[in-house]
Amino acid sequence: MLLQLTISNFAIVSFLELDLRPGMTSITGETGAGKSIAIDALALALGERADADSVRPGADKADISARFRIEKLPRVKAWLSEQELDEQDECILRRTLSREGRSRGYINGTPVPLSQLKALGALLINIHGQHAHQELQKSDYQRGLLDAYAGHHQLMQQVSTHYQQWRQLSNERKQLQGEQAQWQAQRQLLEYQVAELDELALAGDEFPILEAEHKRLANGAELLNDCQLALNVLADGEETNALQLLRQGLKVLIDLAQMDNRLSPVQEMIESSLIQLEEGHGELSRYLDRLELDPERLHEVESRLGTVMELARKHHVQPAALHDFHQEITTQLAEMDHNDSRLLELDKEVEQAKEQFLQAAERLSQSRQRYAQSLNQQITQSLHQLSMEHGRFEITVTADNDGGYSPLGIDRVEFLVSTNPGQPMSPLARVASGGELSRISLAIQVITAQKVETPTLIFDEVDVGVSGPTAAVVGKLLRQLGDSTQVLVITHLPQVAGNGHQHYFVSKDSADNDTQTRMQELDEHSRLQELARLLGGNKITANTLANARELLVD
């Protein structure tokens, strides 16, 4: 429940601090005194849109804070825990608004976006404005009232989840169908290209190997001649060769090293060179023995290289990249085949998801119909109490089979009413009398509010158009509601105000070009005076005081 509301520099309020209690709190005051300012400020603390003009003239910023007791509100505590905000037995919502239009929100002292203020505020307070009957004429609002009264949150969550799954699968299918239409023209070309490259079957490292082999085969004769020449120069020449000359030089160095041992390292180097020369000669000889001219293999290599080069030019890639290109288009073709299979799967999954959504929506629809019957009886009875003896109320819940599916289900909810004998049931929006519409709206709001889990309810002049004995019934209904939850009622009717467990009076003072709104709690004597004022105007008589005493409920 709301424990305290503190307002600073908001509109014509310089400073106001209200300490609130359980039960029904009546708020009255003179016309234009600003009875709704506290509600407007509270709405700002709950995350509603801010207007820089709301800052009191001459002040730099407006500051509003609302303190709540939440130890018996598990949904609120769970929400705070989920958002990783401080979770105690009390919770403070605060909003500041600068003259420049900058707005900041806080929950338990932690800065938060306004969306979080609004989400938490919806769990703490439900405000019923004097124009609620205008919203009440809208189908979506009517459905929301019925769902709030029914409290079937789990059913609604199931419907929403199944709807989102169905739409997600449907969107995936639609996207794949679009891609398939685009790819269909490419498929035939890809299939031909992949088949052609499959036939080539070029390995990943084959092209550089082919190039090296072609170079060797194409230069076979030159390799034979030059290798033989190199062997002759190294060791096979009859007249002279490098090996013979190196041996002669080594023989001289051996003799010299015996005369001067400083030449021993030179001798060792020449000996090492002689060994390497002999090994090199041997390797070259063995290479030459294996070297053969193979025109047939050369033709095969040239033919395969030619095919690789031709296909590379055809596909506008480098020959060395042809293998990767083959893999890429093979993957694309496989994806197309996979998408074809996925589309067949999606057809089944979409139908299954739609069926699950419709089943969940049907369960929700049945729940709405059950609670609609309960509401029909209660609201009809309440209309009779509100001087509409022949009033009848009915909620219709019908399936919209023309594609009206949404996360909220398949139902179209409509409030129907008949106010006179023999008059057919008609949509609430067609009720002619404004007073009747106000009473119907009030009956609906009071009854549905009894089932809503919000701990604090505010009624801002919802009794407009009501008077006399009907007003007394409205007051009793609101007091009954206050017996189970905290209710704040802004009213101009003494029959309603007299039912409050406590009573605040709003006044406006103007002096020295300054205007301020004040609110003060009334004691029993002051309450009698205010009820008498509401009954008879500014002239209070013994009769109006007597009437006021009759209206004041202990």
UniProtKB/TrEMBL annotation:
Q: Which residues form a coiled coil?
A: 336-370
CDD domains noted in UniProt: ABC_RecN
Q: Which Pfam families match?
A: SMC_N
Gene3D superfamilies from the entry? P-loop containing nucleotide triphosphate hydrolases (3.40.50.300)
Q: Output the GO biological process annotations, alphabetical, semicolon-separated.
A: DNA recombination; DNA repair; SOS response
Stored SUPFAM superfamilies: P-loop containing nucleoside triphosphate hydrolases (SSF52540)
Q: Which GO terms describe its cellular component?
A: bacterial nucleoid
Q: Which GO terms describe its molecular function?
A: ATP binding
Q: What keywords sit in the KW lines?
A: ATP-binding, Coiled coil, DNA damage, DNA repair, Nucleotide-binding
Q: Domain RecF/RecN/SMC N-terminal, which positions? A: 3-508
The family classification in the record reads: Belongs to the RecN family.
Q: What does this protein do?
A: May be involved in recombinational repair of damaged DNA.
Q: By what name is this protein known?
A: DNA repair protein RecN
Organism this protein belongs to: Oceanisphaera psychrotolerans
